[in-house]
């Protein structure tokens, strides 16, 4: 867009982003199709959470995924059956199990990311360099806005303001 052109409205930008997300999903799936052991989108999300929060329990994973412990338990059963995660007794509670990606699971995610980046790189390389720079700038702004919105939503559900520290109640 030229400097004199009007900037798109939020609804126009949302439609454009939605369209791009659909195309990205196609590219993402191409990166996944190579693997001989298919992993569902839900299982993949669980693996990303486990990569980020090593050793969490089933309840915490279910919370992170917005699901129920019984559903997540079945999902973990399948991931364990294909050899991507391990369950181990918790050091802090005999009643809980800790969930971890194993080496095979980490390798799967590394290879998946590599294949996805290859697919993206081929598309991005076809763009003029000034448009690539604008893309990076726009994506960084989008990430910052999305992170702020997620922080606000998390604060709203926990009852506090983003970044706020709870103070003790004062008595008169």
From TrEMBL:
GO molecular function: DNA-binding transcription factor activity
Pfam families xref list: MarR_2
GO biological process, one term: response to stress
Region of interest (Disordered), residue spans: 151-172
HTH marR-type domain residues: 10-144
Residue ranges the record marks as coiled coil: none
Protein name: HTH marR-type domain-containing protein
